[in-house]
Amino acid sequence: MLIQPCSRVYRLSRPRRINAGTRRGMALALVIGMAAVLFIGLTALSFTAREETGQASKFIFNVKAECLSEAIHTFLLAESYSYSWDDRFYKNRQIFSSEPGLVCTSPVELMKKSMAALMAKDPLLAQNIGYDGYIESETVDGVRVIVICVNITLRVSMLKNEVILTHTYYDLYKRNLLDSLGETVSFFSSAGGGKAGKISSKILNSLKGPLSFEKEIEQEVKGKRNDRKQPKNKNRGRGKGK
Amino acid sequence: MKYVNRKGMSLIEIVFALAIVCFLLFVAIFQFAGTKKIHYISNEYLNKACLADIAAKLIKDQIQINPYFLKNINNAVVKNPDGVLLINKDEDLSDSIGGAGYSFAVTDFPVISSVKNNTADGQYYYFGLFKVENTGALMASGNAFNSKAFLNIKDLQKYSFDLSITDEGETSLAGILKNIDIKIKYGGAGDPHPFLLSTKVLCPPESLSSIVYSGFQKKLFETSRDEFLKNMGLLLKDAGPSVAGNVDAVFEWLCSKNPAPLMFKHYAASGEKLEPEYKKTAERHFKNVYFLIYVFDFNAYMQSMWADRIDDLSVMPGLGPVERLLAIASTYRKKAQLALQTADQARIPFSEIGAYLNKGTKDTVSVMLASFLKNRVDEFFDYKDISMFDIIKNEVIQLPDDFTTDGIKGALEKFNALLAGSYQNMQPRALHNILKEMTAFNEVNEITASVSQSGYVNTEFKNAQNNIKTVIERKYRPDKFEAGLAYLKSEASKNELIGSLIDTKYKVAADKIKYFWDMERIAQRLDMTLEIMIMAINYNISGDLNALLKNDNINFRMEYNRGLALAANEGISRDEFLRRNYNISETEYEELQNKYGDNLNVSKIRNYVEQRDR
Question: Range of B502's domain?
């Protein structure tokens, strides 16, 4: 009973060996063909799936990065309103980074502390995202502008970071009662943030307008005494123009 | 049996082939299922991210358009599935949202919910806060939930959100910065992968609590003052007259008087110079006087220049009516702002001068300061033949007008006129900006009118309220401009409650504005103080201000001088005034004149009258 199956196997195998060129090739080709088709299909599927998750990740990181950038800008802007223009902490460019080791001025340190708390709440941010940038000021044509640049980066590896976005925010410095009751003036640019170029005339014009009060004051204080025009009458025109 | 020609596969081949096929099929199915699952998960997560992004942007946009948003959020009326009508009931508008330590949290609220159970009326709220009336794009007509639109209402109803707004504790301006966390969940509270989005927003002044707003304004004024002082300090240093030279000149003039005032007799007799510590004190106070004149003169110059500009703008060709009025209103704004800053800068030096003059004629520097203030100058800037103090006094009297009738009132009139005439033709953004400007000026006008000493009436208040009402009824409501509508409604309500707000939220601003009229009062008191001081110096009467005020001799002379001045105004001669005042006949007066000649003075007349009446 035990030998029989073996002999049957032997016997069965003999004629097959005779026609091996045709029969064996067909089975192998079928399997290989099927495997190849499935492999291609699965690879395509895997690629599509990976692409989809990759794009989704990019979108998600971008959304989070936008909000983080806004948070950094808003915090620094609130801090900048805590100081007079002459005592501003960003007179010289203040560079900041989420990486440890860089010691900044107190308001920037406060921002870093606040951002650390914000990022700690969100594991995705805490594990993958970093930021750096700077805050500085410019006085162009008498207009006082706060410039805040933020880079949000993705930690790809231990040594490599990929920039998700770079935003540069331009805000008009204003400090008086009527301004505080009026509209906030702000300008936002997402291009060329890291280049730290001069403020373009387009941005400058958008910041000017009814709030360019400081400009006139500064210019007049500096220049008027020497060549001021003499009003014909001391109180002339002080109530006119209605 | 023939095996040779039999075609087919051996059993092992079949098993092998089947095993490979099964394995491949298993892998394929697994891969398909896995991909499908990944697709669903990533799609769901993307939807959550998209919704969180929309929510964050909506909140920021709303705050930008309606600064009361954070305050009104407390009372957003939304019906959630549990039948709760309010997200956070705060009907008394305790306005804590803008305060330090505020914490607002909503959990498991539907991303979209209908106002009523009947969804056919098409009124929905996004995130419980943003009303959506036209939901056509989200629903197929006739069948509410068959839309194939991305994130249609049927899909959106599967999502819920947690919203948390907390105060940022790390910032220097406590209460002004808010942390916003939005967590989007799918399928309810048990979602294992909610999407969290965190950001920060600046709390607009309208949403700040009274305490935080007052603190913010206080800080704002302090730093504004420091800044202005630095500019003025530089101006004084560069172009100002020699303060030390003026101290020396006043000292020498007092020493050369005949007779020299009591405090200067010693210097006049010995030829000694003024002690350095006195000189330093005198320089500090003289510098205060110059500072005041510089600040006031600077304001006068700018006010005059801006008034000219308003005149020019009124007739300037090539300007459209809106452009022209905006430019004019903007200039009024600058006038008001500078007047306010001028009053703020003048406050401390003005008080210091007043306080130092209280030392009266017992103090060397006080005598010098009084003499300097009352000294007539030939020409100083645009001022001619006028004392230093009169320059200051005239400007102090003029200053409230720079702020009120020539400043905020002028601007408010222009804004009201512009809105009343052109609101229908304006683009939403332009209209919104003008409304914000108008309401800001109306607010300042109301604060000013609340200062009882001012006598100022906000005659434009009614026009401002009417404009708000008109824009609500005819522009915003028909177009369903919800955020603008919410802003204007809040603004109209606030105007009705402005009285109580002035006592709390706007107290710092009200105190600043009140100073315009406080300064007038201080100037009048200073004027009287200087009059007494000069009289005491001339008659060599020593004493501090209190003692001088009680001195009969000074009181008599002051009364006499005032009476004489009044009589002169009415065309009455000195002789006539003395006769009437002391009830002396013409004959008696002639006798006295014959007796004393040119030496006849009021004390001799008083002695005569006393003896006569005895």
Answer: 238-521
